[in-house]
Amino acid sequence: MKILLVNDDGIYAPGLRAMRDALRELGDVQVVAPLAEQSGVGHGITYLHPILTKEVQEEGQHYGWAVDGSPADCTKMGVLEFCDGEPDLIVSGINSGANVGINVLYSGTVAAAIEGAFFGITSIAVSLSQATQPDYPTTARQAVSLIKRLLDKCPRRGMLWNVNFPACSPEGPRGVRFSAMQVQRENEKLEKRTDPRGRPYYWSGLDPLKNHLLAEGTDVKDMMDGYITVTPLHFDLTETSVLKELGGEDWTV
């Protein structure tokens, strides 16, 4: 199996390294990751200037390709340039921090997986809550076990999955739950501060998990309850009910 591994935390992120090592159990892994951290950039792509890349080596051996661009750029570059043939699977992560709820739409990690699904390649975003000290190697091994089962149970090509691991604990995750994406927030905070020169500045998104409603059956609630959450996603944003309701009328202007 040919596997493309991407992320948004950058080519030197510990979660990326752990995921690479664990994925070797499944096949050949090609790493293509941002040169610098790209958290929260969403599905931005680079098209107004050239994309620079460089090969990263470790102890004289090829480690991966660093891309001076977005996570979505990395997926595109991996599929079209750096993989020896189209990959069979794309994995994005392990991200440092959960990507649940509305944060899915901001996430560079998820965007890199969505870009893979654009190509019709099964793509899986993997993230780990940072509420406690992260154990990336253990999470990576658990993620690979879960990925193997997802590929076996749902072999349809082009599937898009968002997987989130709860904060690490001695007991480990309580289990796996298939959860819906939480799309409602309880509140949104913006904190105003003043710099030493008396100028105002702002911090937003200070507590992205606690801002969400904790509705049963959603990724936010299940992950905070200690479960690994698995959410099947799709990128078609069409509101089909309105399309059917109004699309049949005469809208001549």
Q: What is the topological layout?
A:
Blueprint: E1 2-6, H1 14-23, E2 28-34, E3 53-58, E4 61-67, H2 71-82, E5 89-96, H3 103-106, H4 108-118, E6 123-128, H5 136-153, E7 160-165, E8 176-178, E9 190-194, E10 200-204, H6 219-224, E11 228-232, H7 240-247
Parallel strand pairs: 1-2, 1-5, 2-4, 5-6, 6-7, 8-11
Antiparallel strand pairs: 3-4, 7-11, 9-10
Q: What would you note in describing this structure?
A:
The protein is α/β, with parallel strands linked by helices and 253 residues long. The chain has a single domain, classed as Stationary-phase Survival Protein Sure Homolog, Chain: A (3-Layer(aba) Sandwich), CATH 3.40.1210. 27% of the residues lie in helices and 25% in strands. The protein contains seven helices and eleven strands. The strands form two sheets. It has a nine-stranded mixed sheet with strand order 3-4-2-1-5-6-7-11-8, with helices on both faces. A two-stranded antiparallel ribbon has the order 9-10. A hairpin with a 5-residue loop joins strand 9 and strand 10. The longest helix has 18 residues. The N and C termini lie far apart (54 Å). The mean pLDDT is 94.
